[in-house]
Amino acid sequence: MPVSRGPKGSIMTLTLRAVSLNDLPLTQPITARFDATGGTIGRADHNTMALPDPERHISRQQAEISADAGGFVIRNVGSANPITVAGQPVAQGQAVPLRHLDQVRIGGYLLEVQNEAGDDSGATVIRRAPDLARPVTPAPMPKPMPIPAPPTPLGGATSA
């Protein structure tokens, strides 16, 4: 499988984060990171992203994530359980692209896609400042202040 690369040749990674279960926030975070080797999602513990599902609404292996030249795709490999991506149903055997901030619904889980080589809007971008065209000359040193003469005693008397 070819390595999927983002801008300037960086290797792309994709993170899926479970946001909620049955529209309720999760008490324990569930996240999984996928690279060019891809991975799987399902209720079985051996999946890259294991989604606990005692009611068995999710297949042991429900979906596969893979990378291609265009980015990451998700394929529904579950037997009869539907999944949706960005509100669109994904039929068994069908594969669709995953885009940054897409929402994926598998069983009662709502997952959010974070494509780390994709959209960098809102990200802090640090760039090297351009080289200056001419060298900067330092500011001249200030001239020293003259030292004032010692004060003259009152009455002009001098000591002997």
Protein architecture, described:
With 160 residues, the chain is an all-beta fold. The protein has a domain at 7-115: Sandwich (Tumour Suppressor Smad4). The chain has strands spanning 14-21, 24-25, 31-34, 39-42, 49-50, 63-68, 71-76, 83-85, 88-90, 95-98, 103-106, 109-115. Strands 1, 2, 3, 8, 9, 11 and 12 form a seven-stranded antiparallel sheet that branches. Strands 5-4-6-7-10 form a five-stranded mixed sheet, with no helix packed on it. The termini are far apart.
Q: What is the straight-line distance between the termini? A: 102 Å
Quaternary structure state of the chains depicted: single chain
Name the helicity range. Answer: under 10%
Low-confidence stretches at least 5 residues in length (pLDDT < 50)?
Answer: 1-8, 118-132
Would you identify the CATH architecture of the domain at 7-115? Answer: Sandwich
Radius of gyration: 32 Å
What can be said about the biggest beta sheet? 7 strands, antiparallel
- Label the structural class: mainly beta
Mean pLDDT, rounded to whole units? 81
Instruction: Kindly identify the CATH topology of the domain at 7-115.
Output: Tumour Suppressor Smad4
Order of helices and strands: EEEEEEEEEEEE
